[in-house]
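User: structure tokens for Conserved hypothetical archaeal protein, please.
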Amino acid sequence: MDVYDILFLKCTEYEVVVNERHVPLWMLSKSDEERINFDLPWTNLQDLAISLYELKREQQKSKELLKCNLEEIIVGISYLKSKKSGSLLSDESMAIKACMDYLSEFITARINCIYRYYYPMKTPPNKSLFDEVILKFPQKKDIKAKNRQDFEEIISKLKKYDFNLQN
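Assistant: Done. Predicted tokens:
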């Protein structure tokens, strides 16, 4: 099991509200879609893309590891709808692509922050699951994470309500 399998499992544990009850995502099916309240901090994919862009930009400028909830972000990318008008990213596939690009760039910026400021000296105090994996391998300067395909697979499975790990 790799880090993306673990991330997928954590996404399936994300709690949503259905009929005023909190249930994990894995208990739902496509037929429940109309009754689900994801209770996300964004209203649409464009808001999420803007938030991810800002997060990425702040991480690139900061020596601190910015906190973010990867499961919440991936659930948002998977289930939020696109704003239909008044946006450059009104096409849902373009909005999803922008969110995934910014998420990938945020993780790359985070990896580079870990390498530059923490890895040579000590382990960062607020590390996440990705940081644990990253810190186990020797790094070179200015890493570019290649995680796009892994995120696409996770998002695709979540969109289809396919909560099986093997496929």
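User: Anything notable?

Assistant: The helical segments are 3-12, 45-61, 70-79, 92-118, 129-134, 148-159.
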